[in-house]
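Q: Convert this sequence to structure tokens.
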Amino acid sequence: MANSSQDQPANLKTHQMATSGGSALKRYQDLIVGTRSWGRLFYFELCMLMANCPGALGLFLRKLLWPRLFASCGKGVMFAAGVVLRHPGRIHLGERVVISERCILDGRSPESERAVVVGDDVNLANEVMLSAKQGYIEIGPRCGLGARVVVHSVAGNPVTIGPDVVIGPLCYLAGGGNYHTGRLDLPIGVQGIKDMGGIKIQAGAWLGAGVYVLDGVTVGQGAIAAAGAVVASDVPDLAVVGGVPAKLIKMRIEEDSA
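A:
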């Protein structure tokens, strides 16, 4: 049986958008800009001219012109140099969001006008990637994502991160990271991605450096995943887990502050 549109591998869809479907310009509009509007194309290109403008001048120009690229953008958002955008018209940014150098915000979910939603006072450190390809990413207010964190949502497997979550550097959250493998006559990469329900990181959780969270997992409120853990199953509220795969180490308890 042929795969549904949602079940198609994300890399195949990207390849098809880049190599077929009209002129090179139209493919660029579909893959990068997210619309074939000439006005949006002109404005996107104007803004990209200042993407790598250094120093205070670059910060000022991006603060002045970039907010209109997005579906919504609150006050006080800071865009550092080298930020890469895909389908910004499907991305919503809250107030006082900090987007550091060389971050990638990818909202390629043509079926939705809300592909990436970032709450107020969120900090994205250098080279964070938020990639929603036929997916959905939501980051609650006051979250901090360390350098080179990757949040990946594909094929309808959402990633939702609650308020006040701390995510250490080099973490990887894979919403839609599991392929169907049942057929032996087809390469795994063309069998489609499973619907595992996505990932939920609940309020106040802390993921240490280099934590991997696999699809279908919920990390409970106030829970901690130790550095380097591979979280393959649900983590209860206030639990501390670690290892590969992650296992319960202890439960958090109120400490005497005296």
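The chain has four helices and 23 strands.
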